[in-house]
Amino acid sequence: MKGSVVLIIKPRTIPDELILLRLIRARNKVSEKTENQIVSLEKGYDGEKMFDQRMINLSLDCLIINDLLFETSNTHYQIDSLLITQPKIHIFEVKNYEGDYVLDGDSMRILSSGKEIKNPLLQLNRSVSLFRQFLQQQRLNFSVEGHLVFIHPEFYLYNAPPELPIIFPTQLDRFLKQLNTQSSKLIGKHQGLANKLLASHIKDSPYSLLPEYSYDEMEKGILCGRCGEGFMLSVDHLHYLTCEKCNFAENKETAILRSIEEFSLLFPNKRITTNAIYDWCKVINSKKTIRKLLQTNFKHVRFGNSSYFE
Ligand SMILES: [Zn+2]
């Protein structure tokens, strides 16, 4: 269709929970449980990005809003991807499962191990139903359809009856083509809906899902900006640092700034001071360098006899 616009109102970003877990793992020993949490978050995020790649090929007027968290009737629910078209709102739950699974009534199992997993169909139904309630409460009149998308090309689900709202990997292209054949002209009320959804989105705090960690137990130093796993080594007279693991070379100031950002992500209640960052970065021998960097990039707040940056 000519002149159609796919507008991504809220792009997907790496989940905060994943960013923090990676930072903790790089500086601390983590349990197998945390390790698994990271792997599963990474896999889920990869799947969602694959889905996004397909969605941008839509050619009808539509709005896309990713990663929404709402609370309706005192219940939290998450929407991986929401698509507003003129005829209806589509809600997508995206799963990046791989291999053979079996559907058995309301339960879903991994074929090889027999291990039961949380049935994503129930999760989808719950989200759709809560989202309909939300619209009703807001006196908004739109029809809503939910879809469970399995994105991994090597996924198979035994016993899945055709009437379920599932889109299998081999069906996604046809589903999108079908959407493209609809006429969709967005008007003010669609944009209004998008604004309302953004305003109702809850900025989730990931801290409750993290393992316990403390400043003292963490290894200090500047983590690599490329691999995120190695620490940066410093040679005094050079203006750059190099990663002990992948040899990535990076300008000192960029590296310190990233490390400050990580410091405040991990310890939102700790104040940013020259001494704190000096201790945190460990390999920067000149406090003067750090103070100068803080002065240019942050706001200096005086507080009694001491001061900090924010
Ligand atoms: Zn590296």
Structure description:
- With 310 residues, this protein is an alpha/beta fold.
- It folds into 2 domains: 6-208, Restriction Endonuclease (3-Layer(aba) Sandwich), CATH 3.40.91; 214-309, no CATH class.
- The chain is built from 8 helices and 15 strands.
- The protein has helices at residues 16-27, 32-55, 120-137, 172-181, 188-200, 252-266, 274-281, 287-297; strands spanning 6-10, 62-72, 75-84, 89-95, 99-104, 107-110, 116-117, 144-150, 155-158, 166-167, 232-234, 240-243, 249-251, 300-303, 306-309.
- The chain has a 6-stranded mixed β-sheet. The chain has a 4-stranded mixed β-sheet with strand order 7-6-5-9, with no helix packed on it.
- The chain is globular.
- Bound molecules: zinc ion.
- Taken in chain order, the helices and strands follow as EHHEEEEEEHEEEHHEEEHHHEE
Helicity, in percent? 25-40%
The CATH class assignment of the largest domain is Alpha Beta
What is the CATH topology of the largest domain? Restriction Endonuclease
Number of domains: 2
Helices and strands: which structural class?
alpha/beta
Identify the strand order in the major beta sheet. 1-2-3-4-8-10
Identify the bound ligands: zinc ion
| Low-confidence parts | none
Strands, count: 15
